[in-house]
């Protein structure tokens, strides 16, 4: 009780002194006003993020909130340990693709610094915000134009690093639990349901932003011989080896799913047919290099059919076209990549 009375007396004495010096009183009022504004910002940020159940919608909400205080072209997030990432870009057309490509390269760099960087070809600047003591583990990237107020950015760094941590932990933990029920138990890859959902999302993004999008079907060659000759246990080992090898080559933004016994599918956002085909050819080489082979039979390989989505293409027809490309690869000698008719 005595301590509380003393605090009140001290506060009263401070206010009395401020009243005697109008300049100090104005400074004190300004300080409280700035604190109040910051609390309102924090409340609004948590209100927006608290409504979001997944990383994608959370990063979109964060970008919208941040734009009011710091104009930017792109916000990107990556958690290396969980292999989760998301890029939110407000640009459209060719510039959008260039920014997304630049962000993808920056996000996956082995080491980054929190200093200001320049993208000379795009006439943009960028800055990393490291959210984890281990720089490679978790990072936030902002890309903004040359006119943006860097001092304004600096003022937001401490606030964002402190307030974003909790919501991100929550949504990533939720996605981890949700993800467990949506993965293939043998390989750890996502299942067909996840693939279908992602495909709908990526087509919607392609329609909205105009970026290229490819879909590939993969079917292992000579897997039946491995299963029949070496046994199902060795067949399971082979499937896990192939899945691990393929997973190690894709980007965080890609989606690799196991859709059948020895069948896989892959969604490649921001990828045109030429780039997609070259990537698939590397996958063919990777699978063959595993040197999985049943005695007296050819080495395990993979046949791949790939096609690119285009405006006006119905989803069912796109799936049929991609399946036809896979059939052509199997019929043409196996362990090869084929595109759909008319896409050569």
TrEMBL record:
Residue ranges that the Swiss-Prot or TrEMBL entry lists as coiled coil: none
Gene3D superfamilies documented for this protein: 3.30.70.270
Catalysis performed (reactions): 2 GTP = 3',3'-c-di-GMP + 2 diphosphate
SMART domains, per database record: GGDEF
EC numbers for this chain: 2.7.7.65
A single MF term (Gene Ontology): diguanylate cyclase activity
Domain GGDEF per the UniProt entry, residue ranges: 211-342
EC primary class: transferase
Protein name: diguanylate cyclase
């Amino acid at each position: 009780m005595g301590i509380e009375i003393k605090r009140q007396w001290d506060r009263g004495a401070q206010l009395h002194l401020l009243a005697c010096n109008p300049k100090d009183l104005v400074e004190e009022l300004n300080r409280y006003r700035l604190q109040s504004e910051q609390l309102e910002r924090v409340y609004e940020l948590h209100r927006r993020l608290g409504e979001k159940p997944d990383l994608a919608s959370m990063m979109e909400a964060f970008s919208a909130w941040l734009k009011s205080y710091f104009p930017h072209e792109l916000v990107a997030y990556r958690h290396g340990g969980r292999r989760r990432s998301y890029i939110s870009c407000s640009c459209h057309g060719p510039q959008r693709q260039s920014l997304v490509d630049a962000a993808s390269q920056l996000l996956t760099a082995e080491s980054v610094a929190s200093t200001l960087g320049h993208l000379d070809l795009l006439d943009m600047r960028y800055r990393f915000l490291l959210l984890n003591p281990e720089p490679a583990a978790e990072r936030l990237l902002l890309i903004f134009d040359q006119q943006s107020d860097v001092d304004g950015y600096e003022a937001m760094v401490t606030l964002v690093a402190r307030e974003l941590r909790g919501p991100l932990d929550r949504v990533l933990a939720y996605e981890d639990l949700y993800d467990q029920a949506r993965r293939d138990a043998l390989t750890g890859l996502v299942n067909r349901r996840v693939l279908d959902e992602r495909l709908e999302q990526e087509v919607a993004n392609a329609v909205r932003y105009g970026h290229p999008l490819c879909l590939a079907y993969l079917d292992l060659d000579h897997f039946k011989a491995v299963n029949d000759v070496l046994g199902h246990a060795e067949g399971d080992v082979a499937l896990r080896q192939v899945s691990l090898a393929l997973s190690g080559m894709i980007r965080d933004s890609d989606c690799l799913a196991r859709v059948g016994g020895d069948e896989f599918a892959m969604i490649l956002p921001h990828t045109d047919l030429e780039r997609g085909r070259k990537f698939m050819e590397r996958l063919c080489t990777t699978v063959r290099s595993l040197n999985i082979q049943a005695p007296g039979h050819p080495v395990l390989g993979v046949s791949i059919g790939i096609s690119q989505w285009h405006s006006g293409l119905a989803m069912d027809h796109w799936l049929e076209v991609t399946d036809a490309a896979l059939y052509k690869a199997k019929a043409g000698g196996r362990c090869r990549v084929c595109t759909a008719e008319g896409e050569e």
